[in-house]
Amino acid sequence: MKQGAAKQGLDIALEQDGPLWRGRFTAMASPCECLVRGVSAREARQLAETVAEEAWRVEHKYSRYRDDNLIAAINAGDERWVSLDDETARLLDFADQCWQLSEGAFDITSGVLRRVWRFDGSDRVPEPEQVAALLPLVGWDKVERQAGQIRLQKGMELDLGGIGKEYAVDSAFQLAGKLTDADLLVNFGGDLVARAASNPWQVGMEGTARPMAGQLQFTSGALATSGDRRRYLLRDGIRYSHVLDPRSGWPVTDAPRAVTVFGQQCTQAGLLSTLALLQGREAEALLREAGVQYWIQWGDDAPVTG
Amino acid sequence: MKKTLDRKTLDGKKLAAGLAAATCSLLGQPVMAQDTDDAWQFDSAVLYYSEQDRVTAVEPVVRGKKQFQDESELELKLTLDTLTGASHNGAITSDKPQTFTSPSGGSTYEVTNEVPLDDAFKDTRVAANMQYTRPFTRTLRWTGGLNFSNEYDFTSLGLNAGLLWDLNNKNTTLTFGLAHEADTIDPVGGAPVGLTFQTEEDKTDGTEDRSINDFLFGVTQVINRRWIMQFNYNLSVSDGYHTDPYKVVTVVDANGDPLEAESFGATDIGAGDAQIFELRPDSRTKNAIYWENRYHFNRDVLAVGYRFMSDDWGISSHTVDVKYRSQFDNGWYLQPHVRWYDQGEADFYRESITAAELTDLQNSESEVSADYRLGNLTDTTYGFKVGKEWDNNQQLSLRVESFTQSGDSDASELDALITQVGYTFYW
């Protein structure tokens, strides 16, 4: 299955619609696209290739589903020091700052909780003892770091899934943006960043119930969405969101279905939407305070926007 | 069954600012404005200006700027100027000795074969500016400011008000401004009576005044994502005392040698003492246009500015200013700079005058000045600025420039070196 995904990933389909070029490919289990306006076919292909290669590079380097990358090496380290390259060190610094800013609500060591939590739409909620048994393996403060190196305690794991896709969007956008002055939009499965000289991009947002939850026009900025209408558990009328609070090991039960944030960078918007989701009922208050534009879908109704 | 956690313990505003900063360092970008929203931006700089054999100026400047939540902006600036050295007193350069009185009239000095300089030149200037800009409606902003400047013999008070109007999706901004300035000049030893001999010490008591009214109209136009253009028109009308109380004009014979004061019935204080105090008109109207283009390449920026000024003293000037900013990795930049300035002389500029011309001037009560700054003048400045910007918007820069001036007289020949160290930080 992994090989199949990789093979499929190497295809880029380039389509033209008037002055608009659309390069499509698959990465990180999501449909991805690179949109560019008013360039030649050769340039459009070059841009799409740049964007796709960056997506595949980040995916390859940071996917927790591979056993041949740095994340696998760190996770298999078992109390040994593992050397980091600059990019990974920067990502871990970022994760560290997010952990601090969120007071522990964002934690890249929380992936081990998925050993007992499977958000398949069923009612299989784990026993509290099962969750409690994993909690000693969660906690960014238990991770040791020194210049250029990292060491995990036995059984702990890093999972950059919470920032990897948004980071890939920003990084690919930066790379492509240096190659052209043209209007550009990079979209990896709904997390996107765009710029336009004057003619704004129009972006539609998927809804939980309706196909379209909202439409947004902007010339420069990023959108990121957290939440998933397919990944949840339902038992005794309680809908468990797939977002786990790393401090308790339990999902937020009264969280919104989806939170979309408009920001300057995709990484920043993605973190804000995740943290808002973790605030449960207080999601909107956090976003209002943060002073960003947002859309919150609580149920099957139209989103609350602000 | 599960631990309950306190929700909503996070401060959204802090979180957003912290995230913005963290994102920028992750992506290796300069931090955006939002995380410095609550901070004062301080620009500090020390300028060192040194003319060969003449004036040396040391000028520290601190500027603080803050943007508030309501999008208003306050800017405060404090400048301190220390000038020491010698300044040209207006007389010609001659191989015959010339004798001058000091501004206070208390002593005399003699100069031969050199540009006559007034050694007593020493000044400390303190200037403070305050400017506040605030949105009025979504597209209209107003601005108001106060200026104060003081030095030993000069005090200036100014106020200004303006409107900034954004049109065309903020791609066009129109600026209208009015400014008023009131100056008080209190020359050392009193203000001399123009066209009288320096030896007569005919000076007035008390102070002289000048008022200046300015009108400004400006258009800033975004041509495209990379190119921004600015056009300004400035009308300036000033009334009152414009004469430089420390400048004289040499009265010469047919050979161009300085005459003696006693041959005009004035007191003898030494050889070549026929120097009269200059006299300038009591009003000046200036018209100036300024045109600037800024072009952003992928990283580099080119700025080209042109200014034309013309006044009713007969002076017209052209200034061309070109800067190119080369942006390197890791926040370093290098900015070469070239400036060229050229002006034509004022109607009443004379390098020196003859006895007959003096009689004509005195009879018609006309103006005369030998200040080289009112004569034909060309100057060229070239140099560079090198700087480094850090992720937290701190910036350190060094500017080194060479200034060369030439004109009608020996006094106008001047070389100077300008160095400036600047530091920008947030607090």
From TrEMBL, chain A:
Binding site for Mg(2+): 162, 274
UniProt KW keywords: FAD, Flavoprotein, Magnesium, Metal-binding, Transferase
Domain of life of the native organism: Bacteria
Cofactor binding, note field: Magnesium. Can also use manganese.
Annotated EC: 2.7.1.180
Cofactor: Mg(2+); Mn(2+)
Catalysed transformations (reactions): L-threonyl-[protein] + FAD = FMN-L-threonyl-[protein] + AMP + H(+)
GO molecular function, a single term: transferase activity
Entry keyword ATP-binding: no
InterPro entries attached to this UniProt entry: ApbE, ApbE-like_sf
Enzyme class: transferase
Family as reported in the entry's similarity comment: Belongs to the ApbE family.
PANTHER family: FAD:PROTEIN FMN TRANSFERASE, THIAMINE BIOSYNTHESIS LIPOPROTEIN APBE
Protein name per the record: FAD:protein FMN transferase
Organism name: Alcanivorax sediminis
UniProtKB/TrEMBL annotation, chain B:
UniProt keywords, alphabetically: Signal
A Pfam family assignment: DUF3570
InterPro entries in UniProt: DUF3570
Keyword Signal included in the entry's annotation: yes
Region forming the signal peptide: 1-33
Name this protein carries in UniProt: DUF3570 domain-containing protein
Species name: Alcanivorax sediminis
Source taxonomy: Bacteria, Pseudomonadati, Pseudomonadota, Gammaproteobacteria, Oceanospirillales
